[in-house]
Write a structure and sequence with these properties.
- By secondary structure, the protein is α/β, with parallel strands linked by helices.
- The chain folds into 4 domains: about 220 residues, Rossmann fold; about 90 residues, Rossmann fold (3-Layer(aba) Sandwich), CATH 3.40.50.1100; about 80 residues, Alpha-Beta Plaits; about 90 residues, 2-Layer Sandwich (Alpha-Beta Plaits).
- Helices cover about 40% and strands about 20% of the residues.
- A 6-stranded mixed beta sheet has the order 1-2-10-7-8-9, with helices on both faces.
- Helix 12 crosses helix 14.
- The longest helix has 17 residues.
- The relative contact order is 0.10.
- The model has no long low-confidence stretch (mean pLDDT about 90).
């Protein structure tokens, strides 16, 4: 298997459009991790992503008849741009099926390369199913984003370049994983020539389809309800069949990282390179850091920085979460007496630590709840702070890992239901497209009184919403039936401590 892939990688036609990207040192991160950290700068490609390599290699191998019929694919991101640019250079008509909630910046980028865009559905699966239908009817060639030997070989040229550029000792290569095309291509080449070099895949926690497949010994389908949407470039429910054949034998380990760890990695890349990676593009760095934190060692290691197609509006959210991901910030809900001098006394209890956020509103009660962010030196320093505050008599809720608190409640502190009406609280993910809110409200059919609503645009294809409904616990079943009929992903948060402290 490896020899076949190495031959395909060596003969891959990618350099008509792709560039040999530099392998650069990240000095700040190297000093912190205690080993030389190198970044493979695939974010510098013409479409700001490695995806161009596989797309072009696949399409360059088509015969004249297939080129005349045209190609089709489904993608809302980097693969779409890779196919569109490759098609333009090869003179092939490309049809790209994208979800209706795809951010306009991505639609515009693909259209600027001359591709025909078809908007259909809200999810990748919706778009992919429609693309397959059109392929069958029109005779197009389907350009798969990862599950194709020619695409894998194109992506594998990244591994070839890494070994060409780094001739000395190398301990590991950390590779972002979505459907597995990049990690399979790199593993095939590297393990054939340098079996001593570890190839480590890195996935977002909510879309870890390769890790699930490795654990089960077979490909598994992740449920759509739990699929991660933050790192949209790797939001894949099932690893490819061909990619898994390679990865299960030649990928040494798979690491998963959460949203905060990704945001911290984006900041690390910016600090060292003055470049802004997209969430999926920062997976390699995030995984490398987690590997070291878990006791893994390396003298020299490479992380593939796989893409930089991030919407500007998302940077606000990323910057908010980066310090938590680096474990340099502790988010706490603290109860203090509602009396003069309480703030000053509480600040003294924090010692010399810097306060990064402080939210409070007078409520006229005997006790006040404050939402506070505190800068800490290390994770253990944060834990020590919680212990010390409790020792001094302050009731403390650690909300550092509370998604509802970090996404919504921090922006709503001080509001309470009038007359403390009975309320059920839910968190939703809405597709970012016209009519989404109307569909939500229409689906409730006027039965439910909305008592709380918070939405904040994060520049992604999916918006996050927190909503409260007037109702008793006995109403949950009826409300759930209506919410399921609407079709948006949701989670009940009625028992969330952040809601209890600040909004109820």
């Amino acid at each position: 298997m490896l020899e076949r892939y190495v031959k395909k990688i060596l003969s891959a036609r990618v350099y008509d459009v792709a560039m040999v990207t530099p392998l650069v040192t990240l000095p700040g991160l190297s000093a912190r991790l205690g080993g030389k950290v190198l970044g493979k700068r695939e974010d510098l490609q013409p479409v700001f992503s490695f995806k161009l390599r596989g797309s072009y290699n696949k399409m360059a191998g088509l015969d004249a008849a297939a080129r005349a019929r045209g190609v089709i694919t489904a993608s809302a991101g980097n693969h779409a741009q890779g196919v569109a640019l490759a098609a333009r250079e090869l003179g092939i008509r490309a049809h790209i099926v994208m979800g209706r909630n795809t951010p306009s910046i991505k639609v515009t980028a693909v259209r600027n390369y001359g591709a025909h865009i078809i908007l259909h559905g809200d999810t990748y699966n919706d778009a992919a199913d429609h693309a397959r239908e059109l392929q069958a009817k029109q005779g197009f060639t389907y350009v798969h984003p990862y599950d194709d030997p020619d695409v894998i070989a194109g992506q594998g040229t990244v591994g070839k370049e890494i070994l060409d550029q780094h001739n000395g000792p190398l301990d590991a290569i950390f590779v972002p994983v979505g459907g597995g095309g990049l990690v399979a291509g790199i593993a095939a080449y590297v393990k054939y020539l340098r079996p001593d070099v570890k190839v480590i895949g890195v996935e977002a926690e909510g879309s870890a389809c390769l890790k699930a497949a490795m654990s089960a010994g077979r490909r598994v389908q992740l449920p759509y309800e739990t699929l991660d949407l933050f790192a949209d470039g790797v939001s894949v429910a099932q690893v490819g069949a061909e990619t898994f054949k390679v990865a299960r034998r030649y990928v040494d380990e798979v690491i998963t990282v959460n949203t905060d760890e990704l945001c911290a990695a984006i900041k690390d890349i910016y600090d060292d390179l003055r470049s802004i990676a997209e969430p999926a593009g920062a997976l390699g760095i995030a995984g490398m850091k987690k590997y070291r934190q878990a006791g893994g060692r390396f003298d020299q290691a490479v992380a593939v920085i796989s893409g930089a197609n991030v919407n500007f509006d998302r940077l606000r959210h990323i910057s908010e979460r980066a310090e938590v991901g680096e474990q340099r910030e502790k988010i706490l809900g603290v109860t203090i007496p509602e009396q003069p001098g309480s703030f000053r006394k509480f600040c003294r209890a924090l010692g010399k630590r810097s306060v990064t956020e402080f939210n409070y509103r007078y409520a006229g009660d005997a006790a006040a709840h404050i939402y506070v962010g505190v800068q800490v030196a290390t994770p253990s320093d944060g834990d020590d702070l919680v212990v010390e505050l409790r020792r001094q008599g302050y009731p403390v809720q650690d909300m550092t890992d509370n998604e509802t608190a970090k996404l919504h409640v921090r922006h709503m502190v001080g509001g309470h239901a009038i007359g403390h009406k009975p309320e059920l609280l839910y968190r939703f993910e809405f597709p970012e497209r016209p009519g989404a809110l109307g569909r939500f409200l229409g689906g409730l059919e006027g039965r439910w009184n909305i008592t709380l609503f918070h939405y904040r645009n994060h520049g992604a294809a999916w918006g996050r919403v927190l909503a409260g409904f007037e109702g008793q616990p006995k109403d949950r079943r009826q409300l759930s039936r209506q919410l399921e009929a609407i079709g948006y992903r949701y989670w009940e948060e009625t028992d969330n401590p952040a809601y209890e402290m600040f909004l109820r």
